[in-house]
Specification:
Keywords: G-protein coupled receptor, Glycoprotein, Membrane, Receptor, Sensory transduction, Taste, Transducer, Transmembrane, Transmembrane helix. It is found in: Membrane. The chain is an all-alpha fold and about 350 residues long. It has a single domain (about 50-185, about 205-245, about 250-320), classed as Rhopdopsin 7-helix transmembrane proteins (Up-down Bundle). The protein is built from 11 helices and no strands. The protein is globular, with a radius of gyration of 23 Å.
C-alpha cells in the first residue's frame, strides 16, 4: 500500500483510495483508543516544538548579540528549525485529516504534506548525524594525520555540508515522488497490459521506491552510528587511562567523561529507534490504521522532543538558560500580583 503516500491522479481513483483508507472496520481500533493515541501524538509534537524552539531561540539570540555563532550552535539551529517545521506540519496534517478528508485528499494538499514529511525527516536525520560527527571530530582523541587534518578543517566545511544535506534531502524527496507516481499509475488495472506486465511494473516500482526511501535513512544512520561508536570508544579508552592514574579522590574530569559516554549512548539509542521506526513506517508493512503503524508514528514523534531535552541537559549553557526561564516563569505570577 505504498500508494497511500501519493494519491492517484483521477478523482475516481482518489475516491477509491479514500474509501479503502477510511474504512473503520479495517482499523480494528476503538474510537476511544484512536482518540487517545492521537492525543499522545499531539502532546509529543507540542513538547518537541517547545524544546526545539527554546534551543533555536537561545542560539538565535547569541547569533544576533555576538554577530556570530559557534559551529555546533549553527548545526543545532538547522536541526531544531527542521524539527519544528516537521512537527508543525504533522500536527496540521492530523488536524486536517481528522476533520476534512475530502480537502486533505486534494492533490495539492496531499502532495504538500507527504513531500514535506519525507524532506524534513531526511533533513533531521542528516543534521543530527552531522552534529554527532562534529562532536566526534572535536572530542575524540585519535592521532591519525587524516583525522587531525579533518579536525582543523571541520568548522569551515560544516556550513557547506549542512546546505549540501538540504539539497540532497530535497533531491531525494523529489526523486521519490517521481518513482511513487509511477507506482501509483501502474498499480491500477490497465487493459492494454496483460497481468504479467502489470505485476512486473508494480513490483519493480515498489522495490525502487522502498530502496530510494530507505537510502535516505541508511546513509546518515551509518554515519551517526560510526561517529557515536568511535566517540564512545575514545572516551572509554581515555577514562580507563585516567582511572589507572587516579589517586583515589573523585576526579571531575573522569566524571565528565563518563557523563559524555552516557549521553552519547542515549543519543545513539534514540537515533536508531527513530530511524528504524521511520524505515518501517515508510515501508508500509502495516495497515495505515493498525495499532503498530500508529505506534511507529508515536516513536517518531517522541524522538525530536526527547533528543532535544537531552541536548538541553547535556549542554551547560542551555541548561542554565532553561533553569533561568523556569525561574522567570515561576516568579512571573508573583510579580503580576504586586
Amino acid at each position: 500500500t505504498l500508494g497511500r503516500y501519493f494519491p492517484p491522479d483521477t478523482k475516481e481513483k482518489q475516491q477509491l483510495r479514500m474509501t479503502k483508507l477510511c474504512d473503520p472496520p479495517e482499523s480494528g481500533l476503538s474510537p476511544f483508543l484512536i482518540t487517545l493515541l492521537l492525543a499522545v501524538l499531539l502532546a509529543e509534537y507540542l513538547i518537541g516544538i517547545i524544546a526545539n524552539g527554546f534551543i533555536t531561540a537561545i542560539h538565535a539570540a547569541e547569533w544576533v548579540q555576538n554577530k556570530a555563532v559557534s559551529t555546533s550552535g549553527r548545526i543545532l539551529v538547522f536541526l531544531c528549525i527542521s524539527r519544528i517545521a516537521l512537527q508543525s506540519f504533522m500536527m496540521l496534517e492530523i488536524t486536517i485529516s481528522s476533520n476534512s478528508l475530502s480537502f486533505y485528499y486534494e492533490d495539492a494538499v496531499y502532495y504538500t504534506f507527504k513531500i514535506s514529511f519525507i524532506f524534513l525527516n531526511f533533513c533531521t536525520l542528516w543534521f543530527a548525524a552531522w552534529l554527532r560527527f562534529f562532536y566526534f571530530v572535536k572530542i575524540a582523541n585519535f592521532s591519525y594525520p587524516l583525522f587531525l587534518k579533518l579536525r582543523w578543517k571541520i568548522s569551515g566545511l560544516m556550513p557547506w555540508l549542512l546546505w549540501l544535506s538540504v539539497f540532497t534531502s530535497f533531491s531525494h524527496s523529489m526523486f521519490c515522488i517521481n518513482i511513487c507516481t509511477m507506482y501509483c499509475n501502474n498499480s491500477f488495472p490497465i487493459h492494454s497490459f496483460n497481468s504479467t506486465k502489470k505485476k512486473y511494473f508494480s513490483e519493480t516500482n515498489v522495490v525502487s521506491l522502498a530502496f530510494f526511501y530507505n537510502l535516505g535513512i541508511v546513509v546518515p544512520l551509518i554515519m551517526f552510528i560510526l561517529a557515536a561508536t568511535l566517540l564512545i570508544l575514545s572516551l572509554k579508552r581515555h577514562t580507563l587511562h585516567m582511572g589507572s592514574n587516579a589517586t583515589g579522590s573523585r576526579d571531575p574530569s573522569m566524571e565528565a567523561h563518563m557523563g559524555a559516554i552516557k549521553a552519547t549512548s542515549y543519543f545513539l539509542i534514540l537515533y536508531i529507534f527513530n530511524a528504524v521506526a521511520l524505515f518501517i513506517y515508510l515501508s508500509n508493512i502495516f495497515d495505515i490504521y493498525s495499532l503498530w503503524n500508529i505506534l511507529w508514528q508515536i516513536i517518531m514523534a517522541a524522538y525530536p522532543g526527547s533528543h532535544s531535552i537531552l541536548l538541553i541537559q547535556d549542554n551547560p549553557g542551555l541548561r542554565r538558560a532553561w533553569k533561568w526561564l523556569q525561574l522567570r516563569l515561576h516568579l512571573y505570577p508573583k510579580e503580576c500580583t504586586l
